[in-house]
Structures are given as C-alpha cells and as structure tokens.
C-alpha cells in the first residue's frame, strides 16, 4: 500500500498525537462533571490548550 500523494508526515504525527492525548486527558478527568466546571476561556493560552481537547 503506497502513501497518498498529499501525505504529510508532520500532520499525520500531530493527528495521532492529538487523538492519543485527548483519550488520556478524558481518562484523567473522567470523574469531573463538565457542566459544573467554570472555565474562563478569555485567556488566549487557555483557548490554545483547550483547542487540542476538542
């Protein structure tokens, strides 16, 4: 099986890392109720961090 012509190894790595990391984060915080969290997303760095979780 050959790689697609538009394959990008860096994007592939980021995609795999993000999926793996998101699973670990969900597992770590599984006991928290997302409806009760008070997250202030006004901070740019917080927005950046939470962009990886979604």
Structure description:
- This is Helicase associated domain-containing protein.
- By secondary structure, the chain is mostly helical.
- It is built from 2 helices and no strands.
- The N and C termini lie far apart (31 Å).
- 0% of the residues are buried.
Series of secondary-structure elements, N-terminal to C-terminal: HH
Largest sheet: none
Helix content: 55-70%
Distance between the termini: 31 Å
Protein name: Helicase associated domain-containing protein
Task: Please give the structural blueprint.
Elements lengths: L8 H20 L15 H10 L1
Short descriptors:
mainly alpha, 2 helices, elongated
Concise overview:
The chain is mainly alpha-helical and 54 residues long.
